Amino acid sequence: MRKVASQISVALVCCILGFMLTYQFRVLMKQDNTLNLNNQNSSDVTVEIEQYKKEKAALETKVNDLQNKVKGYEDAAASKSDSTKNLLDELENSRILIGEVDVKGQGVVIYLNPNSNLFGNSVNNHITDKDLVYLVNELRFAGAEAISINDIRVVSRTGIRTAGNYILINDEKISPSKRIVIQAIGDKSLLYSAMSFPEVFSDLKAICDVKFEKSDSLTIKKYNKPYKFEYAEPVKE
C-alpha cells in the first residue's frame, strides 16, 4: 500500500514538473518570437527610413536642377531689356526675403555652449525657445538680413518652440543641451555692437558659455519648406 502511494506521489510530482517545464518552454518560445518580430520590425523601419532619405536627396537634386534652368531663363530674359532686368531684381530680392535661395555675406556668428553640470538636469538649466526667439529679435532689430540656427534658416514663418527635450525650429529638432550656432548676415559692425550690450546675454551666461564674433563671409542655406497659403489672399481693389 505504501509502495503504491509512493508511486502515485512520484507520478504527481513528475506531472507537475512536466507541466512547469512545458509552460516555461512555451514562455521562452514566445519571448524569442517577440524578439525576432521586434528585430524584424526595427530592421524594416530602418530600411524604410533609408529609402525615404534617398528619395528626398533625389528630389532635392531634381529641384536644384530645375532652379538652375529657371535661373538660366531669367538671365537670358534680363539681357533683353532694362525693364525685365528690374523685374528680375525685384524677384531676387523677394526670394532672399522669404528665404528661397542660399545667401552669403558679412555678419556675426554666435556660439552657445551649455555648461556641463552633472546636477543641472532641470529645464531651467538649459537653453529655451524663449532665449532663441529673443536673440533672433535682437538680431533683426540690429538689421540682420538673414539668420540661421544650427544651419536652419529662420524666416517670417519660422516657429521656435520647446517640445519635450528638444527645441523645434521649422519642425526640425535641435538639442538645448548641445552647442547651438546662430549665424546672421548684415552689417557686421552693427550686429556685433548690438550683441555687445550686457543685457543681451545676461540670462544666458548663467547657463552656457557665450561667444560671438564678426565674420567677413557667411553662407546661410535656403528655407527648405514649401510656402502655401490656404486662408490669406491678396485684396483686390
Written account of the structure:
- Strands 3-2-7-1-8 form a five-stranded antiparallel sheet, covered by helices on one side. It has a three-stranded antiparallel sheet with strand order 4-5-6, with helices on one face.
- The protein starts with a helix and ends in a 17-residue tail after the last strand.
- Strand 4 (160-163) and strand 5 (166-169) form a beta hairpin.
- With 237 residues, the protein is α+β, with helices and mostly antiparallel strands.
- It has a domain at 105-220: Protein of unknown function DUF881 (Alpha-Beta Plaits, 2-Layer Sandwich), CATH 3.30.70.1880.
- It has four helices and eight strands; from the N terminus they run H-H-E-H-E-E-E-E-E-E-H-E.
Widest sheet, order of strands: 3-2-7-1-8
Major sheet size, sense and barrel closure = 5 strands, antiparallel
Tell me the distance between the termini.
112 Å
Q: What share of the residues lie within helices? A: 40-55%
CATH topology of the domain at 105-220: Alpha-Beta Plaits
Query: Can you identify the CATH class of the domain at 105-220?
Result: Alpha Beta
Number of helical regions: 4
Q: Mean pLDDT, as a whole number?
A: 79
Helix/strand order, N-terminal first: HHEHEEEEEEHE
DSSP strand tally: 8
Contiguous runs where pLDDT drops below 50 for at least 5 residues: 1-8
Share in β-strands: 15-25%
Overall outline: globular
